[in-house]
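We read letters as residues; the fold follows as tokens. A sample entry reads:
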Amino acid sequence: MPSTLLWASIAGLMALLPAARAGFNPNSDENLSVYWGQNSYGQLGWPNGQQRLSYYCETSPSINIIPLAFLNGIETPILNLANAINNCTAIAGTQLFSCPQVEADIQECQSKGVTILMSLGGSTYTEGGFSSSSAAVAAAQNVWAMFGPVQSGSSAPRPFGTAVVNGFDFDFESSVQNMEPFAAELRTLMDAAGGTYYLSAAPQCPYPDQSDESFIDGEVDFDWVQVQFYNNFCGVDNFNNPNAWDFSTWDTWANSVSLNRNAKVLLGIAANTGAANAGSYVDGSLLASAIASSKSYASFGGVMMWDMSQLYANSGFEAEVLSDMGAPASGSGSTSTSTSTTTTAPQTTLTTITTSASPTTTSTSGTVPQWGQCGGEGYTGSTQCQSPYTCVETSIWWSQCE
């Protein structure tokens, strides 16, 4: 038997090791979710872009959740992982790829405790949902066969081989039809499979989000939403504007509207200046204040960032956000907690953030520079981009010159 001195030495060494990582924790207000797959930093032409998935799981033990972005098509599946596709091979007759490197990386990340989601949609998703409920259910079954547990006898292509994701993230930037039966079928399939699987969504911060309202408002059991508080007038950059910032509306959604009354709300932020439209990136005391205020609400579950490549190019930002999440809450948010996991939502009235005015306007004469706003609901400025850029819609709230 080792001596007491030896045990003390071992304990001392263990204390120097990082704490064991856990995936999404519904009882925590310090979850950190970071999207991987789109190489936002590298696509802007800057060096040191997106690395393979396992690199981030090995070097950042604080990240709990990684949504893989994106499955851009669902009914006709389209896989887009930017430069990570360079290590994949095309699957004949499809717009999918076989990615053994990603397969191995998913399994390695999961072995370290990371929750890996397949994110559906993205800004280039154009299918608009499904033509019918039956088409939506069939699509959900196909997606589950592609990314869920391997099904004996299934002919569905599996981009990540034997790797099984921990659930799905819904990131839609425009209105979709029949998405509720699609989400409901995925939830049913996941629940029937046993184990722990999650559904999340990434709505814009104005409530109600026109893209996600139909399936997150009391119809399907979502575990959390990671709300995009950037690229919108209600973003963290307007935290000091009481007519714009309103985390409380999403807290009310979690407590009164969501089918899952224990659903968490993650504060979505830009991970770097180039990760969002001009002015949307926030750090320092303003970000600390927004996080501290959000922590005062019982539904607050942590922070989401877009995206991994931008985060790693922004030295010290992850540590700053972790410090902010660990600081005391401030403000007078809801401190009540729910005791019911799933219940039928009553008719509830939430404060709806209006979009009759945009926080940024540009003279109707002149042109808009790269990354500047050129459209969106309520926008009254110029829609003409400087050459050679064109105006690209990223959501109903925002179009930008790219």
Q: What stands out?
A: Residues 1-20, 336-365 have pLDDT under 50 and may be disordered. The CA atoms of residues 55 and 105 lie 9 Å apart. The longest strand covers residues 65-73.
